[in-house]
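Project channel, design review

CF: Before we commit to the Microbulbifer echini constructs, I'd like one complete example in the thread so the newer folks can see what an input/output pair looks like. Taking Arginine--tRNA ligase.
RD: sounds good, go ahead.
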Amino acid sequence: MNIRQLLSDKFQAAMLAAGIPEECGPVVAPAKKAGFGDYQANGAMGAAKRMSTNPRELAGKILEQLDKGDMIEKVEIAGPGFLNIHLSEQWLGQQLWAAQSNKRLNVAAAQEPKTVVIDYSSPNLAKEMHVGHLRTTIIGDALARLLEFQGHKVVRQNHMGDWGTQFGMLLAHLSDKLADSDAEVALADLEVFYREAKVRFDDEEGFADRARGYVVKLQGGDEQCLKLWKQFIDISISHCEEIYSKLNVTLEQGDIYAESRYNDDLPVLVKELLDSGIAVEDQGAIVIFLEEMADKEGNPSPMIIQKKGGGYLYATTDLAAIRYRTNQLNADRILYVVDARQSLHLQQTFVASRKAGFTPESTALEHCTFGTMMGDDGKPFKTRSGGTVKLAALLNEAVERAEKLVAEKNPELDTKTCAEIARKVGIGAVKYADLSKTRTNDYIFSWESMLSFEGNTAPYLQYAYTRVRSIFRKAGIEPSELKGNIQLESPQERALAIKLSQFGEVLDQVAKDTFPHVLCTYLYELASAYMSFYEACPVLKEGVSEQQKHSRLQLCNLVASTIATGLDLLGIEVMEQM
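CF: and here is what came back for Arginine--tRNA ligase:
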């Protein structure tokens, strides 16, 4: 159910019936102030200006044509032509009753399901995952979960870096290491392994030439070289899978479509672009000159797809990937959850892909940019010594800190239960602290704020869920046993009902705009509305009628279900006790 869309459809029909041009559609939004209705339609003023007529009179004509049905109790004209919409209490109660007895909470599936390809996480297999991989991984996963919930076909693409010149260096070092130990021991710490290889590449005589030789062998399909490379990749992927499991991320091994998968297509792609005249040779390199991205002096933006020595670049691989996703995966929409520093590169890729005919205009190409996780000093988050923070270490610390907090709050918990709650709280806190920020912004990483049980945090929402669920244990009743209609007698009940009914439209907004923080804000506002309701509307106290109790318990049940579903779409788990 999307109330905003239902109201928009009603007011659009009324405006057309009132003789207003179709392009003058209604602008429907939730009311921002109490007493001004539940929603507000602001279409009369814009239409009146276009038609050179009085906006209040035009608003009156819209109301004459409006089919209120069972949904709308009344509409009032305010100011110069605002239309304040009051929803029917009975209709609201019926919608909520349907939602709390429905697994999908009465959220309709997409009428026109799309195939959505999401490129996210994409770690470089030469190193262990670090904090720089956190945002792409959890933002991308939240979008994948939400779009699947809406009924779209989501294809996850983990575009891992497993190819290129650096692997020659790593394979040369690995081949030497294997003389003393097996691959698993040699690659136990990828960061150490990488640093060792880099030192040898920079300082050891003859090693750089050996490394370049391995690149040639690798790209040429040398059997022994590919065997070494496969060992390196398998162990590296196992490191990534451990992180995904800890993070409660839905990426699986079958979602990996790494750089190497496109290797055979790169010469074919370059030849096609040359034959079509879209790419040209320039100073020995193969270049696409994009007039569509020309600078102020009119100079086209150059996009090199093959180096002078014959090597390929990220641009070449990304063009092959976008062609594969369009033609083989039949994508209607492709989302790239990649940091803002890649904006120029991706813009070039999108423009070149359309210019080459790889991707039609009907396929949406979207760069879901995100900012940087910053430390207290306002600089990118690092260890105290200035090194890169490994993601595994960060998550382990989150759980350890959460376990201390949980044990302090509830010392009666047994060790196993405390550890399980701490895992959900710690991991949820890290993810929610990131997802609750506008993704395009940088943000300051703070243990204290993210693990707080107050404010817009995961622990606050997880605790809110457990509080609601505890009411049913106290009442000795299961949600499935609740009977009767939902009655909205007090302002707090009505405010909570309106907020609950907006879940579907919030999901639609996030799916459209790809900003998960909108869902986080909604969940926090829902929990706050519930607290106001709970303080003002007794549920189990003496004097509450059986009918009132069942009505309010149904509201409680729907709050718990909505919080749990919303957090699950963000990849965050809830628990029955804390």
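RD: helpful, thanks. The two ends are 32 Å apart (CA to CA).
CF: The chain has 21 helices and 13 strands.
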